[in-house]
Amino acid sequence: MSKEKNKAKEDMTDSKIKKTPAGVKKKSGKKNSVPNKRVNLGDMAEGNGTIGENQTRDKGEMILSVVIPAYKEEKRIGNTLLSLDKYLSPLGFNYEIIVVIDGSPDNTFSVVEKYQKMIKNLSIINNPENHGKGYVVRQGLLAAKGAYRLFMDADNSVTINQMESFSPHFEDKSVGIVIGSRDIKGADVKKHQPFWKELLGNMGNFAIRLVTGLWGIPDTQCGFKILTAEATELVCPLMMVNRFGFDFEMLVLMKKLGFKIKEAPVVWINDEATTVTLFGPNGYIRVLWDLFRLRINLWTGKYDVKGALEKKNTLK
């Protein structure tokens, strides 16, 4: 493993984790073993198919972790947290909400900290420096304890109740991730992005499929994805892309490790207050750079796919 990658892991461990009122503890530096126990969705009673509903499980088992990356989100994240709490609290299974702040220069940390007083199971990972969305999503997913780990955007463009249509896909135990899509049958884009953004997005999606070979996935970039714990802890440690190109890196590595990828249509509402631009660290040009960096990394064997596959096979 390269020195750069080791440093990134150390940085993730050293970031400040804010305890919840219930006393969620900071994770130790000891590496977690990959859990091979999976919630059996096939045993679910008839209902709406929500993850965790009517499942036979250990009393203390964490079923769902929701990870929210946050950068300059002081004005939007409060409503998103309230909607999560309203939906999740009556469901009757163990869950956690983890907000990972990416060196935000505004008051995002203090806003989320105030909501801890009214929202249970809410914890904060506060990075003093900005690393990028890919970095903090990866950080949150690896800090999570749920059998299923969802990451979603702070602007609530895709609402939490839509995970109900994702759950049935996990009855196939070879599925490692279910991704939201705005470009398949059943999807509904309620409010579109500006024309130039949609045009660049469509061009970018074509380039992503061309370079990665993900031809069957028209929308790799939707910020609403659910992973199993096993897939998370095998794939995320391999990842190197720290900014907006991490989604397609994650999907390519899922395929390399033999996990199935499933899509679910989403209802999506564009929020105009976005930090995505044409240039800069969060810009479309940077995503293209990450795309070609991914291809170079694959060609040069920088991902330890063989080691991850060996680890996966020991779990069978």
Notes on the structure:
The protein has helices at residues 3-14, 77-88, 108-115, 133-143, 195-212, 229-235, 246-256, 284-299, 305-313; strands spanning 16-18, 64-70, 95-102, 122-127, 148-152, 175-181, 188-191, 224-228, 260-265, 267-269. It has 316 residues and is an alpha/beta fold. It has one domain: Spore Coat Polysaccharide Biosynthesis Protein SpsA, Chain A (Alpha-Beta Complex). α5 (195-212) packs parallel to α8 (284-299).
Summarize the structure.
The chain is an alpha/beta fold and 316 residues long. The protein has helices spanning 3-14, 77-88, 108-115, 133-143, 195-212, 229-235, 246-256, 284-299, 305-313, and strands at 16-18, 64-70, 95-102, 122-127, 148-152, 175-181, 188-191, 224-228, 260-265, 267-269. The strands form 2 sheets. Strands 1-4-3-2-5-8-6-9 form an 8-stranded mixed sheet, with helices on both faces.
Walk me through the topology:
Elements (H helix, E strand, L loop, with lengths): L2 H12 L1 E3 L45 E7 L6 H12 L6 E8 L5 H8 L6 E6 L5 H11 L4 E5 L22 E7 L6 E4 L3 H18 L11 E5 H7 L10 H11 L3 E6 L1 E3 L14 H16 L5 H9 L3
Parallel strand pairs: 2-3, 2-5, 3-4, 6-9, 7-10
Antiparallel strand pairs: 1-4, 5-8, 6-8
Helix pairs in contact: 2-3, 5-8
Mean pLDDT: 82
N-to-C order of helices and strands: HEEHEHEHEEEHEHHEEHH
SS summary, helix count = 9
What is the rounded Rg?
18 Å
Strand order of the largest sheet: 1-4-3-2-5-8-6-9
Which features characterize this protein?
316 residues, alpha/beta, Spore Coat Polysaccharide Biosynthesis Protein SpsA, Chain A, 33% helix, globular
